[in-house]
Amino acid sequence: MKLKKYLTLTRAGIIEALQFRLSFLVMVVGNMLYLIVVYFLWKAIYASAGTDVVNGMTFTDTLIYLVLATALFNFMEMYTVWEIGRNIQSGKIVLDLLKPMEYRKYLFWSYSGSFVTQFFLTFLPTFIAVAFVTHGAIHMGLNLLYFVISVVLAVSINYSIDFLVGTICLYTESIWGINIMKQVIVLLLSGATIPLAFFPEPLKTIVGYLPFQSIYNAPLSILLDSAPQPHTLLVTLGTQLLWCVVMIILSKLFWKASLKQITVNGG
């Protein structure tokens, strides 16, 4: 019965997402322009390097990485910080807390419908197009299964970070600056903007101990590895699982401690 309750929210989210077709078209056009810029930028970087392999990645590897990172971003982005911030400012947060479902779960499953639509409308077509254009550069094997598992863990980590940052709005009652700062940090340190392979060694080591690299770099590294070693997979997925559990616990504890800060209309 609980699953049916959650799937009802997923279905409602799918219906809502399909109502805004123009926004989807605008997003696709914007992504195409971004990817064109990325293509010529990195083509120039590799041309100036004078070698086909830079930091262990070919131009094709880098392009696949960045294109799929953009697709993953569109697929996993939930705008949780904006939602929590708006609800706090409007006072709607009080009504949400009265619902017979934990707020954290309610918010996640409300956005789960967008996962489904974005997967079929953006990520899957992008993945198929990349695989076709690169003539099989993406190995189709067990790495796809590990990639799916890694993405599921990445979604949970990303949501927990969003929810934790959104909770800060209970103290600041402001969302714009917090969300922009969060996006910049996550996109940079997760490898979505620049592959982590291009980071200088000290910074790469530091980033390896942070949860952000588990969002985009981990699943994409698994996907691009045509022959993943058991030890590498164990470390990558194990690290993701660890951060998944840690971030869930931290976000829940911070939310519970911060509920005392709720004020509505001066109350």
Averaging pLDDT over every residue, what do you get?
A: 83
Report helical residue fraction: over 70%
Overall SS class: mainly alpha
| Radius of gyration based on Cα positions | 20 Å
Q: Cα distance, first to last residue? A: 37 Å
Topology as H/E string?
HHEEHHHHHHHHHH
DSSP strand content: under 5%
For the biggest β-sheet, the strand order reads 1-2
Tell me, what's the shape?
Answer: globular
**Largest beta-sheet details:** 2 strands, antiparallel
Low-confidence stretches: none
Please tell me the total number of domains.
Answer: 1
Task: Summarize the helices and strands and which ones pair or pack.
Blueprint: H1 2-18, H2 21-49, E1 53-54, E2 57-58, H3 59-76, H4 80-90, H5 92-97, H6 103-133, H7 142-167, H8 169-172, H9 176-189, H10 201-208, H11 217-224, H12 230-258
Antiparallel strand pairs: 1-2
Helix pairs in contact: 1-6, 2-3, 3-6, 3-11, 4-7, 7-11, 7-12
Structure, described:
- By secondary structure, the chain is mainly alpha-helical.
- The protein has one domain (2-261).
- It has twelve helices and two strands.
- The protein has helices at 2-18, 21-49, 59-76, 80-90, 92-97, 103-133, 142-167, 169-172, 176-189, 201-208, 217-224, 230-258; strands at 53-54, 57-58.
- The chain has a two-stranded antiparallel sheet with strand order 1-2.
- A hairpin with a 2-residue loop joins strand 1 (53-54) and strand 2.
- Helix 2 packs antiparallel against helix 3 and helix 7 (142-167) packs antiparallel against helix 11 (217-224).
- The two termini are 37 Å apart.
- The mean pLDDT is 83.
